[in-house]
Amino acid sequence: MVQNKKLNIRLASPADASLVGELSNRSLAEIAAVGGSSADKEAYYEACLDSDKHRNELANPRQFFILAEVKQGPVGYAKLRANHPTVKINCQRPIELVRLYVRRELNGMGVGAALLQSLLKEAENRGFDTIWLTVWENNYGARAFYRQFGFVEAGTQIQSSGDDKQYDLLLYRSIPWHAPQQ
């Protein structure tokens, strides 16, 4: 994967379940300030702490995780799974970007871009032809970020979590991956 003087990006293994759990738990704390019902947050929190769940996900051949680390420890991860989108797009072997998380204090420092570039290359190496994801319609920063990497909108879907409902946009792009010109 990618490695530079400060950032190491690598595929995760089942042995990394606690690291994935730590990052999931941290993302929960950052999301908690956004809103939603306490019951919904509690259900998500329980899933974040379930190390057996993370070990099973990491061992599942239909999905993979990529970790970003610095000397001090993990700073981000991406979770991908072979899955067809809910909106019709022209593809044969799609993969879903389920989650891309970078510690909030590192936003804008290139960690997310490095993770995305690495996961696109890994998806290409595994023979996928399209990558897709959903993003909350009001998350303008994430939408702009994905646009920089060639993602386009294919439709919307309602995302429900308990009593909370929101509209998510389905974004996708073709693979192979070519880095944007700087």
UniProtKB/TrEMBL annotation:
The UniProt record lists the keyword Disulfide bond: no
UniProt cross-references to Pfam families, sorted A to Z: Acetyltransf_1
Keyword set, alphabetical order: Acyltransferase, Transferase
Molecular function in Gene Ontology: acyltransferase activity, transferring groups other than amino-acyl groups
The keyword Ion transport belongs to this UniProt entry's keyword annotation: no
Lineage, broadest ranks: Bacteria, Bacillati, Chloroflexota, Chloroflexia, Candidatus Chloroheliales
InterPro entries, per database record: Acyl_CoA_acyltransferase, Bact_Acetyltransf, GNAT_dom
Name of the protein in its database record: GNAT family N-acetyltransferase
Limits of the N-acetyltransferase domain: 7-176
Family matches, as CDD domains: NAT_SF
SUPFAM superfamilies: Acyl-CoA N-acyltransferases (Nat) (SSF55729)
Gene3D superfamilies per record: 3.40.630.30
